[in-house]
Design brief:
Blueprint (H helix, E strand, L loop, with lengths): L5 H17 L10 H20 L6 H10 L2 H6 L1 H7 L7 H25 L2 H6 L7 H26 L4 H4 L3 H24 L3 H6 L2 H35 L6 H15 L4 H13 L9 H4 L7 H7 L2 H9 L8 H7 L20 H16 L10 H11 L6 H14 L35
């Protein structure tokens, strides 16, 4: 929405006008305005804190308002926080109006559904599980309104095709907002109990702890990703012929790990291992990495040090876990003829055996300055031929199955025009180096 099309501005204006209509007081229904002001202030404060720390929106307060107040009064709870909260990009005013209108309509719809289903009486005299029915319906209405409005703005402002604009929006939001709804229901029940509003506010304490932990996790994860990006970019700058190779090896490693049934955390670790497997090239002279002719035995020995250089670089990065072993051992071979230590069989870490297959596969299916890309079927046949001697057969089978399901799109990794016209690879040593079945390390 940086440069917002006119049709999107009209859409926002219509949604905002509709939201204003929803704020009209209901006849003969009196809302406790002190409660509206208290909830609105609480939401505004929590929204300012949450947005500044990138941990999302405080939906429990909004939903508690929907469970406690008549629809127009409940909708007012969202306005101050939505209008005051920081927004990430320009135009700031339009984004604030959009957010305020969207939340106003969502809370109003949730309050209407809750009110019509008798939820207000269930909050005053809670009778579980009956109280969960109107609350659940209100949460569903809240999610549906947000989904419909979000899909519309994606179509009009971001030019997302209508067939994709709403896909997955409801399913992704329903579970987390349902948890917020339970917290909002607990707030509403305690608010109406003899303990009063002060007890209701205590419900937010565990939510605040969860938000803090969530923010810490995302900061740590962002730092991890930044560290890995910096290392990979440094390798790509130094060895331009293999630009993009690291990311594709990470993708192939992840596909193998998933096919082997590894848990999500380990799959992510194997992705890191694939991305960083060649980071040790930073310690290899650039002239050797870019040499067009065959490598001498001395040059070959220097390049064969790159796994050890890489391990030295990453061994202090604790979050990488077993990815560090993959960096060190991804050129070991099952028959013991690899390097740097000549490990054989199960003595080679499993992560290294995964990355070795992913590395060789991408090397064969990518065009470089000294070799044309092979078809995927040819590369897989070569891997299968070398399974048991150079590669772990289990990893090769996993890659074959994964590619059979998801396919593969090999791409040129070099910027040089030579990469599009080069003939068969010369015997380069280490990088044919990443090839198989030819005695290359």
């Amino acid at each position: 929405m940086d440069a917002v099309p006119a049709r999107a501005r009209v859409y926002v204006a219509v949604v905002a006008l509709t939201a204003l209509l929803c704020l009209r007081p209901l006849p003969a229904v009196h809302a406790p305005w002190w409660a509206v002001l208290l909830l609105a202030g609480l939401y505004a404060g929590s929204e300012l804190v949450a947005r500044s720390r990138f941990v999302g929106t405080c939906y429990p307060v909004l939903l508690a308002g929907a469970f406690l107040l008549p629809p127009p009064a409940a909708a007012l709870v969202a306005l101050p926080g939505a209008l005051l909260a920081p927004v990430p990009r320009r135009p700031l005013g339009l984004r604030r109006v959009w957010r305020a209108a969207q939340l106003t309509l969502a809370v109003w719809a949730a309050a209407c559904v809750h009110w019509r289903l008798g939820g207000r009486d269930a909050v005053v005299e809670p009778a579980f599980p009956y109280a969960l029915v109107p609350a659940g319906a209100a949460v569903l209405a809240f999610c549906l309104v947000l989904t419909v409005l979000d899909g519309g703005i994606l179509t009009l402002a971001d030019h997302v095709p209508p067939s994709r604009a709403w896909r997955g929006l409801l399913s992704r939001s329903l579970a987390p907002i349902a948890v917020h709804g339970l917290a909002g229901l607990m707030m509403a029940v305690l608010w109406r109990s003899p303990y009063g509003p002060v007890a209701a506010l205590l419900v937010l304490l565990p939510m605040c702890v969860a938000w803090w932990a969530f923010a810490q996790y995302h900061r740590e994860r962002a730092a991890h990703q930044a560290t890995i990006r910096a290392l990979v970019q440094a390798v790509d700058i130094k060895d331009g012929y293999t630009r993009g190779h690291s990311e594709r090896v990470g993708q192939a490693s992840m596909m193998i790990a998933r096919e082997l049934g590894m848990d999500d955390e380990r799959v992510e670790t194997l992705r890191f291992a694939g991305i960083l497997h060649d980071v040790g090239k930073l310690g290899v002279p650039t002239r050797l990495l870019r040499k067009d002719g065959p490598l001498t035995p001395e040059e070959r020995r220097v390049i064969e040090l790159h796994p050890e250089y890489g391990h030295e670089m990453v061994r202090g990065i604790r979050f990488l876990g077993e990815a560090r072993a993959a960096v060190l051992h991804h050129h070991e071979r099952l028959d013991g003829s690899g390097y740097p230590y000549g490990l054989a069989g199960d003595r080679i870490p499993e992560s290294a055996r995964v990355v070795a297959v992913a590395d060789a596969f991408d090397a064969m299916t990518s065009t470089r300055s000294y070799s044309r890309a092979r078809p995927v079927a040819t590369a897989l046949a070569e891997l299968q031929r070398c399974a048991g001697g150079q590669f772990d057969p289990r990893m090769v089978r996993a890659l074959v199955r994964a590619l059979g399901r998801h396919g593969w799109r090999p791409s040129v990794t070099a910027d040089s025009p030579l990469a599009r016209t080069a003939g068969p690879a010369p015997d380069r040593g280490e990088d044919a180096r990443d090839s198989v079945g030819r005695g290359a390390p």
